[in-house]
Design goal:
It is a single chain. The protein is of the alpha+beta class. The chain has helices spanning 2-26, 93-96, 163-168, 175-189; strands at 100-102, 108-117, 123-130, 139-144, 149-151, 156-158. Strand 2 and strand 3 (123-130) form a beta hairpin.
Length: 210
Amino acid sequence: MMKRLLMTTAAASLLAIGASAYAQDNNTGANGQGQQPPVVTPTPPASNSGGTGTTDMNNSAQPAPAPAAQAAPANPPPSDAVISAQSEGELRADQLIGMTVYNAEGQKVGSVHDILLDKEGKATGVVLSVGGVLGVGAKSVGLTWKEIDVKPEQKQVQISYTKDQLEAAPDFKTTEQINSEMNAQQQQAAPAAPAAPAGTTGTGAATTNP
């Protein structure tokens, strides 16, 4: 009786082991390997062109801006209004200013200090620097344009007056000098403000001594 019970228990154990092995074989692949979990491919994040640090691949290749249109070149003045070169008979102002002035006897009487022009740009006279030592203490004398003879080849100016005559002539004054002298004379001629009488206060009321 005991032997039969042991055999029955052993048979039940074998059946249980076989069922477990069968279930394990059903979970094993055809090659005897266990089934692997499915591979999940991550989905790339959506592009956000407005976010910080992100790049929109669709907008990365933008067309280059068109070059700005070049301005049309300026037209020069008409040919009859332009002087392209100095002619032989023309003299520049910087050439005339500083020229030595001689009289008819060939004596040096001064030098050209400045040129006077009218409103139309026509030369009306010259200002001569007469006397002095190296320009210091020299006297300015104005002569009309017709009184001088410009000799560009000799780089000199000739007049018909002596140095003594030029020193006896009135001094040449510019408009600035004239206005300055007139202002100084007006200030000297203006009467001084009368002094306030003694015994008065700032309000005009007289004070009396007791």
